[in-house]
Amino acid sequence: MTTGVMGAVGRRWAKTGVSRLALLGAVAMGGTVAMATPVVSQTTGDKASAEPIVLDSVMVGGTPQSRYDSRVTEVGGRLSNDITDIPRTIDVIPEQLLQDQHAREMEEVYRYFPNVVNNDGYGGTREDYIIRGFRRRDDVYRNGVRLKSNSRIDPSTVENIQIIKGPVSDIGQMTPGGLVNITTKKPSWTPRNHIEVNVDSYGERQTMFDSTGALSEEFAYRVVGSAEASNSFRDSTLVQRQFFAPTLSWAGANGATVTVGYEYGKDSRPLDRGFITVPTTGSLRSVTEPGRNTRYDATFANRDSTSHQGELDVSVPLGSEAWKLEGKLYYAREKTDEIHTEVRSVLTNGSLVRRVEGNDDRDLRTFFSRVQVKGEFEALLPVKFATGVEYRNQRESWINYVGANQTGGTASNPLSWRLVDDSARPTARTARKVDQTDFGPFAQADISLTRALTLTLGARYEYSKGSASVQNLLGAGVTTGSYPVDRNLTKTAGLMWKALEDVSFFANYADTFQPHNFYNGDTQVFPAEKGRQYEVGTKINLMGERLFMTGALFDIKQNNVVETVNGVAVLTGGQRSRGGELSVVGNPTEGWNIRAAVGLVHAKLVSGDRTVDGNRPTNVPTHNASLWSSYEFKDPQSPLKGLGLGAGVTLVGNRYGDAQHTFELGSYTLVDAGAWYYIPIGDKRQVRVDFGVKNLTDKAYLTASGGTYRVSVGAPRTVYGGLSLDF
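Request: output the structure for the sequence above.
Response:
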């Protein structure tokens, strides 16, 4: 499709009230763009006029023209989901980029955001990242709901990924660096069916399907599923997971909408602690690298998790199109069992001290509800207003066991001595329970001071409480701990100034707080973390909106920071982070798409402990940068039509492996490259063939540190292939 045709179609489409997303969905595969039935916007759910709309028939080959440029978010702006109107930095990566990069885990995507790097992730079994120098803590959001999960997110369910930088005060509890929100795939009234199979040189075997369309003028469905049984470059590593998610949407003639969805997931993979460090001179240590495939846990490392999630979204007009009542209910239950091996120390003669430990019958339940009203009114000045209340309860219980220390094997040859599985005869066995409840009314207002200047105000009054118990199952005694009800008001203020048609400047202040949890192995109570951010920046549309650029400077401060080092919670005091970032996304010319970003951050610990005061926090680099660019031949007369080429570079600066700076992880640069080719089959079907290489230069690198004996290992060069069908 040529840009001129796309632009003309898009402008005409906009006049009908149908979203740009619906248009892109219609042209996501080869076929004609034509419409003669009512359509529901995927963004608003409102029906367009029932009058038939007939557009010129346009053949579309390959993928949409602007396939990396997504400007829609579900979190960070309650009154607007267009990131160009929100006075804060928000980065969005759509599903198409995940496909072009062959992303099989979310950690492969995070590194393409400025000032975002991966973290340890409990031996690679959970989502874990650092934003603007601050490690996340339960700040993985799914469709706007804050979640704690003991599993990875399956990319098959992802519509797009949004990273909201800095605190969002009307959300309430969160890490001041920012949060990640995963938007899952929703029903579309535009029919589409997709099937794909993926493999790689280390034994990836994965398949998925995605089907959506209209059941009637009022109902639409979507069913997504995947199955995987893959090996890894790490010895004896098998990842098995299944995923299934049906969703149904209804849109009434009056603008009311209801969407109900269910998601089943099963994830089985080893809990892999990676490499260890050994003493060198003085207090310094070095990372022992016996080979990227070598593991220290023998065969005692496995985690099985099964989850069920249910979700209900309702939107009802309140008398006029200007006001709506919205509600959300969410419930999840996740069951997990795990066994793994921990290195406890390295003796002076080089021998390892290890033990087998794990968790049985882990049962995590989360309930969330939200009711809000939003609309527009005139009060001397035009005002958009939203207010509501959210409630969240999370309960988790599990049995933790610890085996005896076992001495044998060496740092360079850990498998020279065989560990014994003594999990049935542990030296310690405890039953643990945690209960956390959060409740908070919130409000946000966008006030149009002038046509070019908008003031955003937001606040939330949060109530939070928690309790925990640890029962000794091999003896007597129960230890309990509790946080009394903590009340805290978080506030935000932002200005968005549209200086020119395509140039905006913004500034914001926001604060946040987050009570500590009881997942650190005891019932110790720490004071709540409290933080704030100042941010200024600009958002610019270039080349007739072909490119979108965001730049920002920020200053973040947080008190009462707790780090987990080798499984032990440590109160490090405070942390401060200052820096800047720049990102550019778009399609400069027909067929060419690009995403580029650079982030700089100066983060330091502010503590009374002289050994760490002023040090850079664990796993935080001073800079990171990324570039992904692709070109797809679009000219119908070209013999290369349907061929796409993509390449990317990510750079992460040096990081320290602990707060004391006793060892370094080093810096690294990764190069990825891929190609794909679309083969049309008739007018409405096409096959896509993928081939590519990750870590093209076979760079040896370390991704993150979870402590002295927990250093995560980066993947070597990996060749992959894929085959998909759209119909």
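The radius of gyration is 26 Å.
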